[in-house]
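Inputs:
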Amino acid sequence: MIADCDYLLQALKAADIRSLQRPDLVHHHLLKLQKRFDVSRRRVQNRKRSVPAFGLPPELPITAKRQLIIDTIRKDQVVVITGETGSGKTTQIPKMCLAAGLGLRGIIGLTQPRRIAAVSIASRIASELGQLCGESVAYKIRFEEKTSAEPLIKVMTDGMLLAETVQDRDLLAYDTIIVDEAHERSLNIDFILGYLRTLLLKRNDLKLIITSATIDTAKFSQAFDNAPVIEVSGRMYPVEVRYRPIDPVREEKGETTYVDEAVACVEQLQQERRFEDILIFLPTEQDIRETCERLAKRCSGLVLPLFARLSAGNQRLVFSPASQQKIIVATNIAETSLTIPGIKYVIDAGLARILEYNPRSQTTGLPIKSVSRSSAEQRKGRCGRVQDGICIRLYSREEFADRPLYTTPEILRSNLAGVILRMLALNLGLVSSFPFIDRPHPKNIRDGIEILRDLGALTRDESDAETEHYKLTEIVRTMSQFPLDPRVSRMIIEAKQEGCLNEIAVIAAALSIQDPRERPYDKIDQAAAAHAQFQHPESDFLTYLQIWNRYSDSLEKMQSQGKWRKFCRDHFLSYRRMTEWRDIYHQILEIISGKNSAQKHRKPAKIEIDQTISDKIHRCILSGYLSNIAQKKEKNFYTAAKSREVMLYPGSGLFNRGGPWIVASEISLTSRVFARNAANIKSEWLEELGRDHCRYTHWAAHWEKNRGQVVALEKVILFGLTIVEQRTVAYEQINPEEAKKIFVREALVMGEVGRKLPFLEHNLSLWEKTKTMEDKLRKRGIAVDEEAIAQLYEQRLPLISDIRSLQKLIKDKGSDDFLRFREEDFIAHDPDPRELQQFPDQIKIGNAALACHYRFEPGLAGDGVTVSVPLGLVSKAASENIERHLPSLLQEKVFYMLKSLPKNARQKLPPLVQIAKIFSERATIADNSLPLALSKFLFH
DNA sequence: CTCTCCCTT
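Outputs:
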């Protein structure tokens, strides 16, 4: 077997090295290898013997090419086989592989996009080999595996093969892989083909067969080194195509719609007395309902709707034989997933809802778009499988020709977070260099990485700023273990922390299935009433929990499956989806508990919902859907993160009563942008959970005397939403350097501390003294300025910005000496002491000493010197001429008095400056007032 | 101011 071969090669290499040290062990080791080799060889021989005899049905077109296919498979590593449905390729190719001698050293793996198909194909191949399913032919899908010890062929979903690559990196279990329905280009198919492109270089012995509907071959061939393409004819009966375009002018005016036209088409067929079964393709559920209602009124026959959300029972009706003409009105489900036998006419509106992901707004859209030519051809092929058919297209031949040949591969229109996460877990390198057949757009990759970063699965690698290099966080590996959307996996990780794993497992599973609630048109009110009893007014997630609770309750009481089906029917719940929900729930718990199978059959316990658990649950949900938060604008309208305007989905329990903040697990664009699966949240949680994504802005930093610290106003923004409008915060942690600057300038320099600090009083009085000199001398620049003092403090203080830290510092140092400045610290330029002497601090009037207040503020009251004279001394002060005590001011005053003399008097005098100087220097004014003394002097 | 195609680990 291939896996043994790989093992033996590795072991021999290892033995080679070991033989240098312990030759005695080598012999023993080689014996063991010999044994394994023998076992392996015997297995291959047994497998060869177990290949049953089989034939190929001669009526199938592919049988004619049997020899060409077998020869090509033997010769080439990769073969592309194309053929339309009915060619028999899916069942016959695995058999031809056996005929080519494959399937012996490893299994022939056949992948299918859908589970049901995988199971039914497995049993068909088995029966053609004359066996039961699970002998030579195994199958493996999620939750279900049927196999023997030595299967030759294994049919599985493509997702399953992908999951196997985790355990079996080189797919050593297989010697052949057949990728069926490759033209569907689902995410899984593209991922597998990319993976195989690299693997085939390493595994020369591995054969790959890609099968696809006719048109899509060149791309596959090119992707695999121009692999040979074999075409197999498929069409058994001809289909006539009629174009019946809708008049665009009338459609524009609203006079007709594709629903009208489809109904008219059926009427016309019936007028032509054509009463074989009809299949109509329409894009939406609503169109289907409208069409069905109108057809029932106007036409004969059995009118049946068909879409995925329809209950299983109603879906089955399309397969049951009817005595009258069947008119099936279907969505895309009838294009690939369900094949209805005996259709003679196809009416194709040429439209479908096609998923589109917009990475810029992280919004999923489901717009109605024209389908591709290959899709239209597939629809056409739904008739004429057992007889010739007619396909009526509600568009023109030209319009058909203008359409794109293929539907855009899913990988080009999907959210890539999940793909990227898996690639990281598998160590597949950079997404941008992975050999996808169609490389996703860089913008899409960046968005996927951004989502993973939002979830905390990745952090930017700072050592490599240039390219898209990221570091994985610890949670990546845990997250990738869950077969779930990364956001859902993230919730589970948070639930471990919060201690609500069971509850989140229920919700995570619910988010992974389609809504289990059924709403049949004819019983819409009953269904609404049944669902209403589950509805939680605060959270659609808790609504799921309440459904679950009722379910587990009933599971206790009801033992039989039949009763349980009835329970589902009574509550308008889909039995199939409820089962899927339970299975995924168990799968999640299994992964968490490390595959403990004992837990598997544990009955789900009822969950009590109280405020505590509800808070925990919603914090977990937020951890996964943080970028889906929204803030209420009005009524049902919200502004969501990343600037999206959304409306609560009318089906939500929060509709018309949503709180100021919500989180939604889905924001999608249909007729509007809707937030689906929503819950009220507390905005206080947002900052804690979104810490790394919050943007903080600060302004108005200032010293706050009462708090004794520097504070600032803060605003918190998360994904563009303001989660905290304005709050006061200590500025110290935010910007310690800036905070210290403000503390020094506003608190210490200005002395605004609001309490007694001895060093501060000391410093302030020294500074005051220095500033008095300036006032006396009537010039600036003697005292240092505020900035200089601030710098003095800054030099002597560490990074602190509050009183408590300052007081602690002083206490630790034992004194505040280090903050006491000296007198000279405040002086920028020393004043002339003699000059300074001319400005006494006080003057004497009689026996009284009066204080002089100096002020240097020209133009303002109080400029110059002010002496407050008690009322009793006023006349004495006036007669004594107090100006003589202030010699520096006297001269200036005299000068201006002289200048104010009449012009003719002034002209007779010597220069005024000279007079003022001489007058001031003489003590001639002792006993007189100044004007009197001056006039005496002049006459003298 | 009221509703979404189809798959899958």
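Remarks. The two ends of chain A are 138 Å apart (CA to CA). Chain A has a mean pLDDT of 88.
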